[in-house]
Amino acid sequence: KQEVTQIPAALSVPEGENLVLNCSFTDSAIYNLQWFRQDPGKGLTSLLLIQSSQREQTSGRLNASLDKSSGRSTLYIAASQPGDSATYLCAVRRDGNKLVFGAGTILRVKS
Amino acid sequence: GAGVSQTPSNKVTEKGKYVELRCDPISGHTALYWYRQSLGQGPEFLIYFQGTGAADDSGLPNDRFFAVRPEGSVSTLKIQRTERGDSAVYLCASSYGQGSGYTFGSGTRLTVV
Q1: CA atoms within 13 A on the CB side of A111
Q2: How far apart are CA A60 and CA A82, in angstroms?
Q3: Which residues on chain A are in Cβ contact (under 8 Å) with B48?
Q4: Cα–Cα distance list, B46 to A14, A73, B85, B87, B90 (Å)
Q5: Using CA atoms, how far apart are residues A62 and A58, in angstroms rounded to an integer?
Q6: What distance in Å separates the CA atoms of residue B56 and residue B73, rounded to the nearest whole number?
Q7: Are B43 and A32 in contact (CB < 8 Å)?
Q8: pLDDT tens digits, residue range B25-76?
Q9: How many CB atoms within 10 Å of residue A84?
Q10: Who is most buried in A1, A43, B24, B65, counting CB within 10 A?
C-alpha cells in the first residue's frame, strides 16, 4: 500500500528565506507526482506536476524535484513571501487514477 | 466552465438524514474524482469516473455512499443515513485523463450534527 509522508508537519520562517519541503513515498512505481497548495477553507491549487520520467519542474519561485528510485520529492520555494503561507500537499499517482496524498506541511511566512 | 464547481459550499445536516453533493467539472474533462478530507489530513480517494461509468469505487467507505455521473459531466455524491463521522470536506476534481494533472474544486464542507 502506497504511503506518503511529508516533513516537516509545520514550518514558520521569516519573509525572504529560501525553504525546502519534503515528501517521501513508499512505492517507487509511480506514474507522476503533484504538489498542491491549499489555503484555509479552500480547495487545492495545483502547483507543479512531475511525470515519472522527469527529474524536476519549475514555475516562478517554485522548483520541485523527483527522485523516484529513493522515493523522494522536494519543493523548493525561493525568497518566501507572506502570501506563500498555506498548506502544501504532495500526492503521488500509481496505476489507475487515484492520488495518494500526504498530510501536508503548514507553512507560515512572517513579515 | 472555467473551473470545477461544487455546490453547496457548506452543508449542515442532522444525523440520519440524506444529502447530495454536486460537482460540475471542467468542460471536456472526461475523468472525475471524489475525495474526502478530514481536519489536519490529506484528501482520501473515494471514487473515480471515466465518462459515465465508475471505473474505481474502492474508496467508498460503505454502502451508504453512492455517486453517479449519468451524462458524463455533472456528478452527484449521495450519502444516506448520515453519521457524525461523515463530517469532512468533500472535494471533487477533474482531468483530461491518465497522465494529466488534476483540477480541484473548492469543496463542500459537510457537518453532521
Answers
A1: 5
A2: 16
A3: 96-98
A4: 38, 25, 15, 14, 9
A5: 6
A6: 17
A7: no
A8: 999 999 999 999 999 899 999 999 998 988 899 999 999 999 999 998 999 9
A9: 18
A10: A43
Q: Which amino acid is at A61?
A: R
Taking only the tens place, the pLDDT of each residue in A46-84 is: 999 999 999 999 999 999 999 999 999 999 999 999 999
Q: Which cell goes with B59?
A: 474508496
Cβ contacts of residue A52 below 8 Å, gap of 6+?
Answer: A30, A31, A32, A33, A66, A68
Q: Point out the least confidently predicted range of A13-22, A95-104, B61-70.
A: A95-104
Asked if B59 lies within 8 A of A98 by C-beta distance, the reply is: yes
Q: What is d(CA A75, CA A64) in angstroms, rounded to the nearest whole number?
A: 4
**Which residue in the set A32, A98, A100 is minimally distant from B48, CB to CB?**
A98
Q: Is B18 exposed, middle or buried (0-12, 13-18, 19+ CB in 10 A)?
A: exposed
Q: Is B38 left (phi over 0), alpha (psi -120 to 50) or beta?
A: beta
